[in-house]
Amino acid sequence: MESYDLIILGGGLAGMCAAVEAGEAGARVLLLEKQDELGGSTVLSSGYMAFAGTDMQEKEGTIDSTESLMDDMIEVGGGANDPALVIAYGQHQLETYNWLVNHGIEFRSLEAVSGHSVPRGHIIDPHQAIQSLYRRVKQLSNVTILFDAPAKRLLENDDGRIDRVIYEVEGAEQTAKASKGVIIASGGFAKSEELLSQFAPQLKGALRIGGRGNHGDGLRMACEHGGWLKDLPYLNGTYGFHPTAAGPVKSQGLAFYKGAIMVNQLGKRFVNESISYKLLGKAAFEQPDCVTFQVWDQIVMDKSVHDDPLYDLQLLKRRRLLYQADTLEDLADCIDVPLDVLEETISRYNQGVLDGEDADFGRKTLTHNYGKPTPIEKAPFYAFESTVAMLATYAGVSVNPEAKVVNPFGEPILGLFAAGEVTGGFHGAGYMTGSSLGKCAVFGRIAVQVALKEVAVK
Questions:
Q1: What is the signed CA dihedral for 281, 283, 287, 293, rounded to 10 degrees?
Q2: Burial readout 81-108 (b: 16 or more C-beta within 10 A, e: otherwise)
Q3: What pLDDT, on the 0 to 100 scale, is given for residue 277?
Q4: What is the pTM of this model?
Q5: Are 159 and 108 in contact (CB under 8 A)?
Q6: In a designed cystine with 260, which of 290, 294, 321, 334 is the match (CB 3.0 to 4.6 A)?
């Protein structure tokens, strides 16, 4: 039986940050990746990371603080977040940003995104980030990565400590020992119809576009040994995907955070468009036939951000996914909604913008507490049919601030850690853009730092 200090399950951002952190600390590490390549859900994400007080913000003249970041996180999460996890994130977030920069991760630009009071969305190319970390791992002879090697079960010793992993390679079962701990970083369960039907039956019919290996393996392994689960009641899909996103091109646009409105097939608004797009997904899924459109004008179109995963509205146009018309009459005809209703909807919205008060849904900003809405009045007009997708599950295994998996009584399960999408308790009832990748990096490293302090198992 091969023996290591740490065994990491999963090669997404959480697992790769953990592998580099452990490798650089001199630990002997085995990372088991279920698929034939690294990345998991990370490489399907929009690439935003939530950090405060960075050099990028300073260059842009953005005044921010860790306290403001944590306040936004709690507010967006409806106060259902585990405050200890939010505090841990706050304590480590800026250090983690600098660590990523020092490890070759390129932060391309800064945007105002969902749930933030200031521009705080630091954009990476997820593929570039994973490959940068992989290059570093390959320089570390004490770190081994096995591909096509799914973990199957966890085993505990006579003291009740998790110290072995059963995994599979080329159809044969193998067992490896971990003297310092096992870190579950295996992602969520967005591709498990069984678990989705149990935990999120309300999302039947949502597009399934999560990582192909995300079947909840890590969640099952943790539960077998007493791991508790959190945030499952708050599972919602992600809004803003085109109905064709289940195919190879996963087109998404969040024009509403630049000033668009959302209407259903009756031509009516149905929500405050500035809230978290997880909550927008819930509202959209409740509309007739789940059909919704984002509607905007040229003022909003001019805010398109080139090569941005969420705001490149011109890219949607080039892909011929937008309806464009010189009049609202023609636009209503294109998307088959009642003209009189659409005109009334936009007229009421515009008047609310001018009055400074949205009488219907209370929208005051573009996103969360940032940005000023503008009237929809300058031709041409645009519409983007949008739906809800299960991209990531943002709920799962309960952990403490040291990334230790805990049982229903909050007691750590010896030798077992978890980081990334597989964990619950951090986001609460909503979702703040960038906090998912952010927690992967932050808690992936915390898990290693804590585990390496543990007394080695004899």
A1: -60
A2: bbeebbebbbebbbebbebbeebebebe
A3: 84
A4: 0.93
A5: no
A6: 294
